[in-house]
């Protein structure tokens, strides 16, 4: 076995063991959280009442000199830096140094993938040579530049989808809280606490809203900031509806009940839409995989008969 193959096997074994330990730790943490809730104890996130998200108390400045140097040399344009920070925040990376680590990651992949390819060819028994070697190295460098952007876009889309799936359940719980006598602020705090385990993303957004309300912002400003952070159409409509209800003096409970019913109907329509798309999606495997097999099974018997009839032996017998 070559050294490169042995290194890959060791790396795969290490990754498998690390993944197993991570899954086991998550399961133990979930089980402990469920036991705490059954015993009536407050979770760790609720006990630490002084915990405030970084976006409320920290600036976007980086203190590390090395990271500052990377930022000065690669992210000189403020508009580009703010745009990248905005995309990373939508993906769930709201740390001030997230844009710098993103740039470092792209640079490492653009350099590391071709370097790994060159190293693999040096230890390979049949290395690639000539123009193909140059094309492969350049292609890997391009992939290293494109891959982080593709990952970021996929992460943004997945996070928006998860928030859309979690928001109707949180809205139903908010309706129950408001109809039970809690105010809007109290309902937001309660929903954010109760959905911490089952719906972590929407719970985090509600916790941010409650912290902004405690910091002195108005309800309209806190809700608008939640809509800006998520960029989800469902939440934007909810925020606009709440602000309009406050401005006109309408009933918040009735508004929430009506909007909750609309969200349930919208979720059912979306499920029906996905179900209606199944025949179209099944056409591709049907045409390329199942239909050729069926045609082969149907035509193989006539093909054999035609061969026996018109083949050399059939013609000779006639």
Molecular structure report:
This protein folds into two domains: 124 residues, no CATH class; 107 residues, Receptor-associated Protein, CATH 1.20.81. The longest helix is centred in the C-terminal third of the chain and has 59 residues. The protein is built from 13 helices and no strands. With 318 residues, it is mainly alpha-helical. It is extended and about 95 Å long.
Features:
2 domains, Receptor-associated Protein, 0% strand, extended, mainly alpha, 318 residues
Biggest beta-sheet profile: none
Q: SSE order in H/E notation?
A: HHHHHHHHHHHHH
Q: Poorly predicted ranges (pLDDT <50, ≥5 residues)?
A: 42-57
What percent of residues adopt helix (DSSP H or I)? over 70%
**Number of helical segments with 4 or more residues:** 13
The gross shape turns out to be: extended
Calculate the terminal CA-CA distance, rounded to whole Å. 62 Å
Number of strands: 0
Average pLDDT figure: 80
Structural class: mainly alpha
Oligomer: single chain
DSSP strand content = under 5%
Structural domain tally: 2
Computed over alpha carbons, the radius of gyration is 29 Å
